[in-house]
Amino acid sequence: MKKPLWKTGLLGLCAWGLFGSGALFAQSDPTGQKPITQTYAFTNATVHASPGSEGQKATIVVKDGVIISVGSGVTIPAAAKVIAGDSLYIYPGFIDAASQAGITKPEDPERPSDFVSSNPPDEIAGITPWRSATDQFDISSSQVDDLRKAGFTMAHVLPDGGMIAGKGAIMVLGTKGSTNLIKANTALAASLNGSRGMYPGTTVGVMAKFRDVYKNTNLTQDRIATFTSNSGVTRPEINQTYSAMTEVVNGQIPVFFEVENDLEVRRAISLQKELGFKLVVYGLEQYDEVIDLLKSSGAGVILKLETPDDKAIKNQKDDVDEAIQAQYDRVKESYDRTIAQAGKLAEAGVAFAFSTIDAKPSDAMKSVRAMIEAGLSESAAMAALTTNAASMIGMNRIAGTVEQGKLANLVITTGPIFSEDSQIKHVVADGNIFDYEIKTKKKNGNGEATVEVAGTWDYTSETPAGSSGGKLTIEKDGDDYSGTITYDDPSGNGTATSPISDVSVSGSQLSFSFEVSAGGMAISVSVSGEISGNSMDGSMNIAQFGSFPISATRNPNFISNN
């Protein structure tokens, strides 16, 4: 029996989501139900498989969130949606090694009636190693969207809290319908920040308390071992703090220490040397004073992906007195030190990764370019974004490079990744394709479109609910465009028509949006694609559902009136 039109394609997807039995299932579906099959082939793109590797023309085939083949002569499955990559560049998806994107701060617990400030309960003092970032993470946060838009496909999220905030988790930045969790309890998030109005309230107090917690965990383990192996021994008390610290004491997970200055780096390293835990430091703006110490300690280093605002430098005036000039010089020196430290770390052989905590993801590439201009090599910059980060968080087996068998986490750009005019066109996370608007540079000196878009187009959309199509009509009136699009009516009444809006044509890129009425709700749909002659290939983003392939062919009998 033929499936009714309203049960297929674009509107079938909307109807399914609004009226069906559940949400869409993505690659990481925790329900045990069969996930949606998604197979894509990015053909003839320039692929940079790892840091420092030269780009090679290749095809990448992705199925169910995994790269199944990479190369110049691979076989493309018949079911694959082909995405032409002739003018595109593909890199491994970026990894945020220390992130708080999508993390919400837990509520402060109430103080008990018998509260004693010199000996507060662990939770009130900010000692909560049992907490997990998974309980604070929200994939639907705009912070996650911003991170993904900047090319990040995986994040090591750390919980927000006190001196021992809890355990981190590895999240793939996929769709809202997935768990997105790859691994929990990956690291202990700690800092030297004291508690207000109670012990430990000073840096020295925090160090003493951390030492106390660590050593008591060791003692508790010894007592438990004695109790389980000998009769007549009193059962030791099980403390949730010490139980949660066991993985750190046993060397199974590192401590990610947030540091604010070089003195805190020295203090964190002194604790590491005394107690023996694995250490990664992050948060410092200038590491150049402690590079040798970091190298000798073996501690991991995460660099904040941020550079100082250079507007103050650009706006400096020439005709100023000595005092103002001295101030200018100090600002310039601080700026130069900050952007040069990445190169110095690399030169010293200290592998580092990047963090976006307290930084704007939208400025990430600007910051990396500034570091490259200050002496960091492009291969070292890419390693910090990919392989170094993957190794630091224990994900190098499944992420960091473009290889068969690894997660389909990719950044697809319009040019070499670090070039000034390169833009991110697609981000593939967990096999899901996210499309971003390309601001095409003006061409022919006047910014006009380089292709004709007006006419009547027959389009086909592919969604997990099936394949469907309709007609797209575009008219040009001077420099403006308007038109309509038809689609299968979700109410079952044949087809429906909607006007298109926000029509933009830049170079060979076409984008527009329209609204679909389904179940009394207006669902926003945005379309972007690249036109070549009478063909268009692109993507269709349906609010709340994700991005899906769309292709169109123009009626060859169309004759432009412009």
Plain-language structure description:
- The protein is α+β, with helices and mostly antiparallel strands.
- It is 23% helix and 31% strand.
- It has helices at residues 9-19, 142-149, 203-229, 240-249, 262-275, 291-297, 311-314, 322-347, 364-373, 378-385, 387-392; strands at 39-47, 56-63, 66-71, 81-84, 89-92, 94-99, 152-157, 164-172, 181-191, 255-258, 279-282, 300-304, 352-355, 410-413, 424-429, 432-435, 455-463, 466-477, 480-488, 495-499, 501-506, 509-518, 521-532, 535-542, 546-554.
- A 9-stranded antiparallel beta sheet has the order 20-19-18-17-25-24-23-22-21. Strands 1, 2, 3, 4, 5, 14, 15 and 16 form an 8-stranded mixed beta sheet that branches.
- Helix 3 packs across helix 4 and helix 8 (322-347) crosses helix 9.
